[in-house]
Amino acid sequence: MLTDIDIACKAAGVWPHAIFSGHAHNYQRFTRTLDNLQIPFLVAGCGGHSPLSSMRSILRTPYKIDNTLTLENYNTTDYGYLRIVVNAQTMRIEFHTATSTGTSKTPNDSVVINLSTHTITG
Fold it and tell me: What is the pLDDT of residues 47-100, one digit of tens each?
């Protein structure tokens, strides 16, 4: 699938700031590094419709898959949702579990992308 994404991006002359999918029934966040770009790949399929899916093993993150791809974080035990906040400079993607309580929802995971440099900050 990465090859298909690369072909489409090269043909369009544009690379995304983030890639979202929801097929797996859990939460996963990867960072893909291409040239000087850092692109978060997020799987957010833990909205509550189906039972949660486990990973093949428990991994200590960050877990380097290869020279371009790193698993940064994951959650296979909680239902949850993404909150995305965008302004002219940054995109902040937060993962919140459905069981979070209180008035201030602290994310269980987050990533901030600098939109002008295509890099992860913070």
Answer: 877 777 776 777 788 999 999 999 999 999 888 999 999 999 999 999 999 876
pTM above 0.85, yes or no: yes
**CA-based angle 33:70:12, to the nearest 5?**
35
Total count of domains within the chain = 1
Contacts of 115 (CB under 8 A, 6+ apart): 17, 86, 88, 89, 90, 91
The answer to whether the CB of 62 falls within 8 A of the CB of 70 is yes
Total residue length of the chain: 122
Q: Is the dihedral of CA 47, 53, 54, 59 positive or negative?
A: negative
Kindly state the tokens that stand for 53. Answer: 């899916």
**Residue span of the structural domain in which 42 resides:** 2-121
- Tell whether omega for the bond before 40 is within 30 degrees of 0, i.e. cis: no
